[in-house]
Specification:
alpha/beta, Transcription Regulator spoIIAA, Jelly Rolls, 3 domains, five-stranded mixed β-sheet, 61% helix, elongated, transmembrane helix, SLC26A/SulP_dom, transmembrane
């Protein structure tokens, strides 16, 4: 029972809150000459709020959701319609009223359709990429539009200059002063009291005070209506709901079409608002909420409401949290709020004609002031100065030029901020040379020493992310810096690794053309690694055809590019060919020793042809090999049958030493690439040496130790490079 009482109390509170807001929103949409539509407007507002509350409570993934009509979209549409309806001055008032409903309903249908589309495609996170200062600027601008709408209700003028001139009229001041007072009282009351009935109490109290003042001053209600302190609502307009057919028949659809940009802006703002509410509800409730499910549920409700000419709405974060504090559980709070609004619908005419103009205007000033404070003032403490100034710039553009101009400015800021922030991200992932980065080829000590001497002539840039005009200059600057280094040896090779690059624009192709020219002038080729076909085609269209000549070549990956450069460097010192004299390789590894010939004699010479499997994965690791001449390849076979090369061993490399030391099984295959000569030592031979010739056994263990130490040094160098 207590659970149901909490839901009922929360529903009554939400329903009362929606009643007052619905009348105020209707007064905002139908001011002055459009007051004949106020009664229908109140009815549509209350019916829409009821349907939104019931449908979203029924379909939401968060059971305690309470949905509300959202004022932000109404503020944007009112600002847009003010200019559009001016072109319909000669048309009957019912046509203008129907056009208002058509714009309102069409906007809600667009919002609902976008909600459903984003929810179906699971794109709920996309809108979160809109920069926070831009969102804050839009919402602050919406707050200003609500205040401006309140001034229109009171002064009956649409231009700020005309509004200022209207303040000289006592009747206007007589409505504006209490409106501001109501807004201030409401703000102070809600700040000091969190009681759920505070807002309703202020509204009811202000209305009662208004009628008491009229009675005390002897002012008749009809006089107050003539002075526009009360809405001028004809009796016949105070009872009926507009039918969709009536709206379709009387609306000016050309004017509706002109409001399409505002409708699109409202839809985007509503998506942002819903996702912000969902995120806030997740944080407050401590449980995850499916944003895409919320989009679909709200989309269904808005499509239904839009068909009736009603406004858009979605989860009200504050009201949902309030319902939870009041003990509401399950879907009862939203359902109860909807029922209260349906009951209030029977009194739509009375509410429309009895609510003082200043009361509706005061509520709008309060709501607009809340948005201005939250998004234009409070964000000063949250945002850096430059980003906060963006908020103010969008707010100023909306206030001075209108919402669409502010929207364009905000989108322009979004693009500029994206380009600026993305351009600051490093696209050069790693800068290294041929001493620090080596290919997967194990070479002889002489070759390794030669690469240590000449490796600085190989310059490697590993790129990442998307390359465009904002980031490509980073790459060009790195190349320029390397070529201009006065104390560095001449550049022989420039390697650009594109494996982590997601794409590029035309400005990036121009950057690559510039780089090709710079390195060609230095006498070095440009080597592209992992160049995607699409990027290769884009480069060719811009005049850089890879592999057409020696100035720009390609390699399958960084490993093959490094191998190619290393072999060209080693060719200059005649270190590519091996030797059948294994003692030469042993001396290069261990240094001079009188027992090297004996060590070579303890090993067995094997002459192997191309394709011979020297080591097979899974076999016992009972032997070790020294490559004297030729090359062997270490590879593994993946689950899908593909063969992946791990390393290549050339003359002077020791193969299989790790497995021998760990007394395990082989983890990869070793295949001879071409005719090769290798020397093998079995574990049993080593054990025999340990028993019969300790000096020779120690010498062989030194061979293994030096080999493993050199590989460890290279691994440490790579780790330092990756974290440097």
């Amino acid at each position: 029972m207590r659970r149901h009482l909490g839901s009922l109390a929360a529903g009554v509170t939400a329903g009362m809150d929606n009643l007052g807001a619905g009348v105020a929103f209707a007064a905002l949409l139908f001011p002055g000459a459009l007051a004949a539509g106020l009664g229908m407007g109140v009815g549509v507002m209350l019916l829409s709020a009821a349907l939104l509350s019931i449908v979203i409570a029924w379909r939401s993934s968060h059971a305690g959701t309470v949905a509300l009509v959202q004022e932000t979209g109404i503020a944007v549409l009112v600002a847009s319609m003010a200019g559009l309806l001016a072109g319909l001055e000669g048309r009957p008032v019912e046509d203008r009223i129907a056009t208002v409903f058509a714009i309102l309903g069409a906007s809600t249908v667009v919002t609902g359709a976008l909600f459903v589309l984003f929810g179906r495609l699971r794109l709920g996170t996309l809108v979160r990429f809109l920069p926070y200062p831009v969102v804050a600027g839009f919402l602050a601008g919406s707050g200003w539009l609500l205040i401006e709408g309140a001034l229109i209700m009171v002064a009956g003028e649409h231009q700020l200059s005309a509004m200022a001139a209207a303040l000289d009229r006592p009747l206007v001041l007589g409505a504006l002063a209490p409106a501001v007072l109501v807004a201030v009282v409401m703000a102070v009351s809600l700040h000091r009291s969190s009681h759920p009935l505070t807002m309703s109490t202020v509204l009811l109290g202000s209305g009662a005070a208004f009628y008491l003042v009229l009675a005390a001053a002897g002012i008749a209600v009809e006089d107050a209506r003539l002075w526009h302190w009360l809405p001028d609502v004809p009796a016949e307009a105070a009872v009926a709901l507009p039918s969709p057919l009536w709206i379709a028949a009387h609306a000016d659809w050309g004017t509706v079409l002109q409001a399409a940009p505002a409708m699109a802006a409202v839809a985007v703002l509503n998506i942002i608002g819903l996702l912000l509410s969902t995120s806030g509800l997740e944080a407050a409730s401590g449980r995850e909420i499916d944003a895409n499910a919320e989009l679909r549920a709200s989309g269904l409700a808005n499509l239904l409401v839009g068909g009736l000419g009603g406004p858009a709405g979605y989860t009200g974060l504050g009201m949902t949290l309030l319902a939870a504090k009041m003990g509401a559980t399950g879907r009862g709070a939203g359902m109860a709020a909807g029922l209260i609004l349906l009951v209030g619908l029977g009194f739509a005419g009375v509410l429309a004609s009895a609510m003082p103009t200043f009361l509706a205007a005061g509520l709008m000033v309060f709501l607009g002031g809340e948005l201005l404070y939250q998004w234009a003032m409070a964000t000063r403490r949250q945002l850096p100065r430059a980003e906060w100034l963006i908020v103010l710039a969008i707010l100023a553009a909306i206030a001075a030029l209108g919402f669409l101009s502010g929207l364009v400015l905000g989108l322009a800021f979004s693009v500029v901020m994206f380009v600026y922030n993305y351009a600051r991200l490093p696209v050069v992932r790693l800068v290294a040379d041929g001493r620090q980065l080596r290919s997967g080829v194990d070479r002889s000590p002489d070759a390794v020493h030669a690469l240590d001497r000449q490796g600085e002539q190989v310059h490697v840039l590993r790129l990442q992310g998307y390359l465009f005009f904002g980031t490509m200059e980073q790459v060009v600057a790195r190349v320029r810096e390397r070529i201009a280094q006065p104390d560095a040896p001449p550049l022989r090779f420039l390697i650009l690794d594109l494996a982590a690059v997601s794409g590029m624009d035309s400005a990036a192709t121009s950057g690559f053309l510039k780089i090709r020219g710079m390195v060609a002038h230095a006498g070095a080729p440009l080597v592209f690694c992992a160049l995607p076909p699409g990027m290769a085609e884009a480069l060719a269209r811009s005049g850089l055809t890879v592999d057409a000549d020696a100035t720009a070549v390609s390699a399958a990956d960084l490993d093959h590019a490094l191998e190619r450069c290393e072999e060209e460097l080693l060719a200059t010192e005649n270190l590519l060919s091996g030797s059948d004299d294994v003692t030469h390789h042993l001396e290069a590894i261990l240094g001079p020793h009188p027992r090297l010939v004996d060590l070579a004699a303890a090993m067995r010479r094997l002459r192997l042809s191309a394709g011979t499997t020297l080591i097979r994965s899974g076999d016992p690791a009972d032997d070790v090999f020294l490559v004297s001449n030729g090359r062997v390849r270490v590879q593994v076979t993946l689950a899908d049958g593909r063969v992946l090369r791990l390393r290549t061993m050339t003359a002077g490399a020791v193969v299989g030493e790790v497995g021998l030391c760990l007394t395990g099984t082989r983890t990869a295959d070793v295949v001879v690439e071409g005719a090769a000569t290798v020397f093998r030592l079995y574990r049993s031979d080593l054990e025999r040496l340990e028993q019969e010739d300790g000096e020779l056994a120690v010498l062989f263990h030194r061979l293994l130790t030096v080999t493993l130490a050199e590989k460890l040094v290279l691994a440490n160098r790579l780790v330092q490079l990756a974290h440097g």
